[in-house]
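Hey, resending since the last one bounced:
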Amino acid sequence: MATNKPFNGGGDRRPFGRGGKNFGPRRNERIRAPKIRVIGADGHQLGIMSPYEALGIARRSGLDLLEVSPNAEPPVCRILDYGKYMYEEAKKQKSHKAVTVKTKEIKLRPAIEANDFMTKIRNAEKFLFQGNKLKITLMMRGREMEYKEKGFETVNRAVSELGHVGRADAEPKMMGRNISLTMSPLPKNQRKLKYSGELDDIPEDDSGDSDEV
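The structure tokens again:
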């Protein structure tokens, strides 16, 4: 076993080697503080001792000594299975990675036919069920602008029809000649399909379409 390196006088304890390269948290013979607070493999504190003593305890159990709080006074080290520890940390990092949420869109018109409306709702249901955000855009032309109330009613009806898979982020707003809002999916365990089957194909959304819908 390599001998414990002498204490460096209380200097920077960051786990960097020559050239500033980061080697991760110190473990085993790389722990250089003269005294450390040791936490055993069962989570109980074993007290303050030298790294040499702590490493001896770890080795007798076939485990490692890992510096987990280098800036504490004295530094805190744990006795653990380093391979298992790194595996668990990798799993945590993977689960905490941000999930990219896509925004899908359906486009409506004030005088949309009932069958066409339900087709849009079925598509929107699938988008939200898959965990996407949804943008609902109702477009008006010319004299249709005189019937804004009907447009808002259509958008609110769409939101109501999709309440089993998503919720509106805000009230619908008028933007130029369009009325729009966004919806977010419900938590996965609360989403359910009402108008389509789980194995149905996911359609293309309307975001790339022209104003003709």
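The domain at 103-190 is CATH 3.30.110.10 (Translation Initiation Factor IF3).

Sorry for the duplicate.
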